Amino acid sequence: CEILSSLALQMSLYFNIYFFPFWWLITINILYVKYSTLSDYYKFILVTIMILVSLTEVIRLYLGWLGNLQEKVPELAGFWLLTLLLQLPIILFLLFNEGLKIHSLERAVHIVFACFLAFQVLDAFFTLRRMVNTLAARFRLTELHRLEEQRPAP
């Protein structure tokens, strides 16, 4: 019985769990400092992003942890999709949009968070591919054995 989960992905998730509160506190404090200097639509966008990232990150980390350790493809696929389609574009928006008046500390924590997300997207993809291929092979072998058992003896 081959272990399909990824140690590198699990370590990344572990460190991300401890880094996220640090990232959140720094981002909220800097948002508080620069809130009055932002335009109204950037105020709305940043508050919405912080709520969305906070909720999504908890769900994303739970799905990644569960999907990787228990080798569950749907949970790991959900983790991969949330990372690729929500978290990574949001962090890249926060990192590269100069209209947000980015501070150097804010840029530093966004870069670290973006590195976590980029690594997790890549590693989760390869882990998912390995899990799906192995589970498909197991399914085919099980079906083959079932068909051989049902075949009448000559």
Provide keyphrases for this structure.
single chain; mainly alpha; 84% helix; 0% strand; cell membrane
What would you note in describing this structure?
This protein is an all-alpha fold. It is elongated, with a radius of gyration of 21 Å. Helices cover 84% and strands 0% of the residues. The mean pLDDT is 93. It has one domain (7-150).
Topology, pairings included?
Elements: H1 7-34, H2 40-69, H3 73-96, H4 104-150
Helix pairs in contact: 1-2, 1-4, 2-3, 3-4
In short:
This protein is an all-alpha fold. The protein has one domain (7-150). 84% of the residues lie in helices and 0% in strands.
Profile the largest sheet.
Answer: none
Q: In sequence order, what are the helices and strands, one letter per element?
A: HHHH
Q: Overall pLDDT, averaged? A: 93
Distance between the termini: 34 Å
| Proportion of residues in helical segments | over 70%
How many independent structural domains?
A: 1
- The poorly predicted ranges are none
Structural class: mainly alpha
Number of strands: 0
Indicate the proportion of strand residues: under 5%
Rg estimate, integer Å: 21 Å
Question: Which of globular, elongated, flat, extended, rod-shaped describes the shape?
Answer: elongated
Oligomer: single chain
- The number of helical runs is 4
